[in-house]
C-alpha cells in the first residue's frame, strides 16, 4: 500500500519547521533554501506546502534521459539516483509543479524521497498539519479540505 504526505493548510501555522527538518536531514544545515519542501504564503492568509507528490505516473521519470528517476512500485516513492543523474533539468520541466532542484555540491537533481518512509517533516510539525497516510486516505482528506 502506497503512502503519501498530505498537508492541511487550515492547521498550518507557517512556522516552516518542516523546511528546517528537511534541510537538516539532507544537508546537515538549517537553511530554508535547501529544503526539498517549501511552505509559501497562500492566497487567503493561509500557508501552502509544496512538495513532490510521488505521482502515480511520474512525468519526471518519463523525461529523464539518464534513467536516474525510479518509482518503487511497492511504496510508490519516486526517487532520483544522484549517481546516474546528469543534472540536465529535464525532470524540472516535465514536473507539473517544477519540484526537482539542483542538489547542493553535486551536478544532480534532488527532491523529496519521503525520508525512506519516515518523513522528518511530519515529526516536527507541532500543528499536526502534515500527515503520512495511504493514498486513498489522502484523497479523502484533500476532498474534505477543499469542500
Provide a descriptive summary of the structure in words.
By secondary structure, the chain is an alpha+beta fold. It folds into 2 domains: 1-51 and 114-147, 2-Layer Sandwich (Alpha-Beta Plaits), CATH 3.30.70.20; 52-111, 2-Layer Sandwich (Alpha-Beta Plaits), CATH 3.30.70.20. 25% of the residues lie in helices and 19% in strands. It has 5 helices and 8 strands. One of its GO terms (molecular function) is oxidoreductase activity.
N-to-C SSE series? Answer: EHEEHEEHEEHEH
The name of the CATH topology of the largest domain is Alpha-Beta Plaits
Give the total of domains: 2
Mean pLDDT: 93
Strand order of the largest sheet: 1-8
Enumerate the spans where pLDDT stays under 50 for 5 or more consecutive residues: none
Please give the largest β-sheet: 2 strands, antiparallel
What is the rounded distance between the termini?
A: 26 Å
Shape call: globular
Task: Report the CATH C-level class of the largest domain.
Answer: Alpha Beta
Number of helices: 5
The share of residues in helices is 25-40%
**SS-derived structural category:** alpha+beta
Overall CATH architecture of the largest domain: 2-Layer Sandwich
Sheet-strand content, in percent, reads 15-25%
Strand tally: 8
Radius of gyration of CA atoms, rounded to a whole number: 15 Å
What is the fold's blueprint, element by element?
Elements: E1 3-7, H1 17-27, E2 38-41, E3 47-50, H2 59-63, E4 69-71, E5 78-80, H3 90-94, E6 101-102, E7 109-110, H4 120-124, E8 130-134, H5 135-145
Amino acid at each position: 500500500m502506497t503512502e503519501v504526505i498530505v498537508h492541511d493548510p487550515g492547521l498550518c501555522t507557517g512556522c516552516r519547521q518542516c523546511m528546517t527538518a528537511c534541510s537538516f536531514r539532507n544537508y546537515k544545515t538549517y537553511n530554508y533554501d535547501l529544503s526539498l519542501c517549501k511552505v509559501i504564503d497562500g492566497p487567503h492568509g493561509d500557508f501552502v506546502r509544496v512538495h513532490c507528490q510521488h505521482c502515480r505516473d511520474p512525468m519526471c521519470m518519463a523525461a529523464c534521459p539518464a534513467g536516474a528517476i525510479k518509482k518503487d512500485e511497492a511504496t510508490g516513492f519516486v526517487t532520483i539516483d544522484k549517481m546516474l543523474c546528469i543534472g540536465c533539468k529535464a525532470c524540472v520541466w516535465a514536473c507539473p509543479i517544477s519540484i526537482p532542484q539542483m542538489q547542493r555540491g553535486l551536478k544532480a537533481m534532488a527532491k523529496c524521497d519521503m525520508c525512506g518512509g519516515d518523513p522528518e517533516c511530519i515529526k516536527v510539525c507541532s500543528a499536526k498539519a502534515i500527515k503520512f497516510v495511504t493514498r486513498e486516505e489522502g484523497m479523502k482528506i484533500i476532498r474534505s479540505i477543499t469542500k
